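Why does residue order matter? Because the sequence determines the fold. Keep that principle in mind as you read this record.
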Amino acid sequence: MSSLTPSDTRSNVAEYSVSEVSIALKRTVEDQFGHVRVRGEVSGYRGPHASGHCYFSLKDERSRLEAVIWKGVFGKLKFKPQEGLEIVATGKLTTYPGSSKYQIVIESVEPAGAGALMALLEERKRKLAAEGLFADERKQLLPFMPKVIGVVTSPTGAVIRDIIHRITDRFPVHVVVWPVRVQGETTGAEVSAAVAGFNRVDFTSGFPRADVIIVARGGGSLEDLWGFNDEEVVRAVAASEIPVISAVGHETDWTLIDLVADRRAPTPTGAAEMAVPVKAELEAGLARLSARLKAAVTRDLDRRRQASRALARALPSPDQLFALSRRRFDEAAGRLERGLSASTRAKRLRHDSLRLSLSMLERRLGDARWRNGDCASRLDSAFQNSLRAKRTRRSAVRLSLAPLNQRIADARRRHVECSNRLPVLFLNDLKAKRTRLDRDAARVTPRHSLLRLQNAGERLERATERLDRAMGQRLETARNRSQQVMRLADTLSYKSVLERGFALVRDGSGTPIKRAAQLKPGQEVALEFADGRAGAVATGGSAPAPQKKAAPKPPGSQGSLF
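Structure:
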């Protein structure tokens, strides 16, 4: 068998490089398909990549197609893809040469029919319910009589007109409209920003703070109302400190904002009826309550008046009340008169029985002389006894002074001895101190001297710093006191009076003239004003006081300064 040569193995088939084949396939796919709409289930979706791009797959029962959404397109998508959701993706088919795959570059995404939207809505509802955002204990009570009502809706639709008309009919209050788009891609962001904006308003900003918020929109399909199913809207309503009434769609329509709102109204008009009461009914109720109050007060007064009359009839008359007391008073007055007469008679009898006689006086005089003699006889013995007692006490005092004199003598002797020893002790102490000084001088070295000099220098620097600070404080205190004194002097100065329009009159010697009587006709005076001085000549006495109406000047009256 003969071997084959290279020329024998060649064929007429053209050769292509891998890149050429990949580029040709890429051009063929892009030219053939261009823009396509692909329906499939999202698989492998993990959200945006670190670069901002999204990579996932679309699949059905038999095939799988790679998909990519670039960062710039993902931020503009109205509807974001989710794992397991069936969508319709619009984009361009292309290939990725790096891995020999073909993929779709998605430009827009929409759910594959109402079934997909309902599945997404149910999934979002379960997620938010698990967080407790729909719990009844989170819901707030609506105020009975709000002063300001905030409405989040479109300013050009019929909804806002219906709400304002209904509120005006029932109970006119201040209505603040926060305009938003109620349909489209930006609905969720605008509604959530409006609810948060009403909550951020405070009383100091001048903008009225709403007492209740109404989020309203007319009816529509599920796609039209989809902005009110946005998760951002639900969380904004749940975080609102102001009660929120949801009035989105008709009574048969429902959105997630209906579940999280504090109250749900079937229509926007129903929301207005929930927000405010009927003024006429309140006035009628107030009138009924006022009439009932007046009737109750009247009945209570009548009842109390009847009870007072019944008690008055049961009470005794004034004559009966004072009869016993009056009788006791009369009896006491009678006894007093009789007792006074009896006491007068008894005293008269005692006075009549007292008769002065000579024998009685002699008897009393004798008794007095006897008592005087008895006292005189006892006086001498008592004086002797007192004298002896005093002598005894004096002797005892002399005996008690002897130890004291002895102690004084001993003290004087010790004082003399200490005085004699004082020079010797002084000399001994002086010698001991001189010895210690010599010993300390012997121990002192140049290093010790240098350290002591350094310490002294540091102490001197610290003392200088303290002195500077003290001087600065003293100067500041003196400056403040000087400024206060200057301000007080300016306040008390007569120049402050001149600033108010007055003038100071001085004579030729500079002495102030205080009375008009001091002026003489023809006398030169100096007038000092706030901005300078001026000369003047007195033409007469004091000028008349200014009056409201200028009276004609009588002839011969005196003049004034000019």
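Residues 1-7, 546-562 have pLDDT under 50 and may be disordered.
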